[in-house]
Every structure is written in C-alpha cells, then in structure tokens.
Amino acid sequence: MGNLKTKLKQNDLIIGTWITIASTAVAEILCQAGFDWVAIDMEHSPISFAEAQELIRTIDLCGKAPAVRVGENNEYQIKNVLDAGARAIVVPMVNSKEEAEAAVRAVKYPPAGKRGVGLGRAQKYGFGFDEYRAWNERESVVVVQIEHIDAVRNLEGILEVEGIDATFVGPYDLSGSLGQPGNFHMPEFKQALAEYETLSKKHKMPMGYHVGSPDAKLAESKAASGYRLLTVSSDAMFMGQKCRETLAGMLY
C-alpha cells in the first residue's frame, strides 16, 4: 500500500474519488480502476459507521489508502472512523486556526492530541495497540477542507497548525459562501482561489481540489496549477454520466 503521508511530503500527484454508495462492490471496483486513494463521504451521503467500516476494510484489502470525510469537525466521528481503520481523515468546513487545531487533536493520541483509546479494528481488536499508536503518530493523515471565504481569510493561521498534512478546496461550498453556489467563474471565487494557491505555496502545504464531474481535462489543469491531492468526481457521477453517454450514442 502506498503511504499517503509520504506521497504528500514528496509532492506526488495523488488522484482519488468519493464513495457515496454503501456498497463494498462499488469500493472494490473503484480501487481496481487505479485510484491512489478512495474517500468515503460521510458528509454528503447516508453511509453509517458500520457501513463505513466495511468500506474501509474493502479499500484496505485492495491495497489502497482508505480515507473518510466525516460529517463535521467532531471528535467522536473522527475517533470512530479511525478506530475502524481509516488512514486519512478529511474534515469539512474548517474556517479558523482553532478549528484546524481541534481536528488534529481529535486524530492524535496524547500528548499530541486528545483522542480516546479504543481497541477496534485499527488496533487489531486489542492485539496491536502499540503498533497502531506508533503508526498514528507517524503516518495518520489530516486533511482540512477550505470551503468558506472565512477559511481563506484565516488561511495563514490554518496553514501554521502542526499536524495538518494537506488542505482541500470544496469549490461548491466556497462559491456558496460568496453567494453563488456553483459559479466558479465569478471574480470573487477566482480571487479567493488565487489567494489560497499563493498562501499554500508560500507555506509549502499540499493543495487539494474536488473536481466535481468526471472531467480528465479539468483534473489535469488543476494538477498543472500545483494541486497534488485530487478527488475526481464520485461513484454516482461516474455511473450516471457513463449511462447518459451510452444512451445518447445509441441509435434506436
């Protein structure tokens, strides 16, 4: 399995996608397609903790890095999916330095953080805690989402937080915070994105971006702009778009 933290430190291009359908078959198909990381979306899907654990197990067994986007910056949710075996945590709507610090504390055990100790799947059900604790300290990945104009305004402080491995732009919510969700052409959105890119490069923090549609050219353009952590579309979007393309191309 590729070490996600090492790839981020090396500034490698990492391409993934979102899982929104609670099916281990879907997870396996996406892993076999060749994505570097597969992120389970618990913010914008009805996936439960029990379903998330099975998806994490499947991704893990496929040799990919299982990531989870939790529903909110909540230490209970973060602890649950980490105990289930998530290798990376994506925390939505982090708008301040203090919120970024809270995310890191929820991921890390004391003294670096405040995460409670459980003996679940990640810790081999109690027979691998020491090994897991060392892994958590060295290799767990914390990604915070920059998806509100307040986060851009507070970005310098967020980027200074020790323990953040990457940040990740949610373009729909960022544009929404500017009053026009989905409008990526308005000057205010472009200005916010430019500021994000400038400060991220200054602090040498890996940049991430959600490419909403299955659009290889858009993903390539983001990679060319210096984004290293990409999610390209989702399981539902890939399936829906291919269905539409196939039906549109049929003669009947």
SSE layout:
Layout: H1 4-9, E1 14-19, H2 24-33, E2 37-41, H3 49-61, E3 65-69, H4 75-83, E4 88-91, H5 97-107, H6 129-139, E5 141-146, H7 149-153, H8 155-159, E6 166-169, H9 171-177, H10 187-202, E7 207-211, H11 216-224, E8 227-234, H12 235-248
Parallel strand pairs: 1-2, 1-8, 2-3, 3-4, 4-5, 5-6, 6-7, 7-8
Helix pairs in contact: 2-3, 4-5
Any key phrases for this structure?
252 residues; alpha/beta; 8-stranded parallel beta barrel; 12 helices; globular
SSE string:
HEHEHEHEHHEHHEHHEHEH
Summed over residues and divided by their number, the pLDDT gives a mean of 96
- Which segments are poorly predicted (pLDDT under 50) over 5 or more consecutive residues? none
By secondary-structure content and strand pairing, the structural class works out as: alpha/beta
Strand content: 15-25%
Order of strands, widest sheet: 1-2-3-4-5-6-7-8
Q: How would the global form be characterised?
A: globular
